[in-house]
User: What shape does this take?
Amino acid sequence: MDIVNEIRELKKEKDAIILAHYYVMPEIQEIADFVGDSFYLSKIAAKAPEKTIVFCGVSFMGESAKILSPDKTILMPDVTADCPMAHMCDAETIEKVKSDYDDLAVVCYINSTAELKTHSDVCVTSSNALQIVKALPQKNIYFIPDKNLAHFIAEQVPEKHFIFNDGFCPTHERMKYEEILELKEHYPDAAVLSHPECTESIRKISDYLGSTSQIIDYATESTKNEFIICTEIGVNYELETKNPDKKFYYAKSTPVCPNMKKNTLEKILNVLKTGENEVVVDEAVSKGSISALEMMHKLAK
Ligand code: 13P
Ligand code: SF4
Assistant: This one.
């Protein structure tokens, strides 16, 4: 039996589903039961009836799924697939900022450790951050860990006062403004679609900013035929599948998230066979972080 059929058989036998983020390899997106952006996957994980979820993404995704569904078994194909940005803040700094303001909400990008979520009021993803920040009653917003998404949101909500943290996504920050300008010169008719984790200079020359799903939807619904895509290269699989006649261009340095790419078919097969790499979240951390995740799901409805 080939590896894909072996995975399919084992999935049935173990009552498991496979969730995959748009940044994982095409062969995984092809066999996954659900592929999506962080918010979509967290909703699916929370309500999936299956006993086991194989989460092809990075640690914070598996952790969030476990916190929202503590009775499910969450398996990560590679436990070392971790998002560096998730660690770019710390509890002491959050508590210090909290003590500086009376009327403060700590808004935590879901790309963060469960520990950071325990110090936060609400989680957000790039697809719902604007809606959620607008809905918060607090005037002061401490947005962790990503400074780029924070600035993108802050610009659209001038009535709020933002306190910024210094985190960033190394994959999106590696993309250079000059590379995108060069692409724009080469393809003057192309629309620039970017993820809000991009730097300000790229954001400013973008025609549209959104989460991975929103970028894919925008390109699919657009009457344009050419797009410069400023996010991780994995989205190209869905973009081309949905739009075989459209053209998509990327920065010459090729934006690749090395952690997302640690997921492989072989590793999926292994965790289904062995049950290895089960996500475990400390009980106190789980209890402390669930309210921020649940608040996101409530406010993003
Ligand atoms: P999305 O929520 O847009 O899928 O983004 C996740 C991510 O890790 C971006 O780098
Ligand atoms: Fe983290 Fe960036 Fe990779 Fe997304 S692309 S998982 S933010 S390192």
Q: What stands out?
A: The chain has 15 helices and twelve strands. The chain has three domains: 3-82+260-281, 85-168+286-299, 171-249. The longest helix spans residues 283-299. The mean pLDDT is 98.
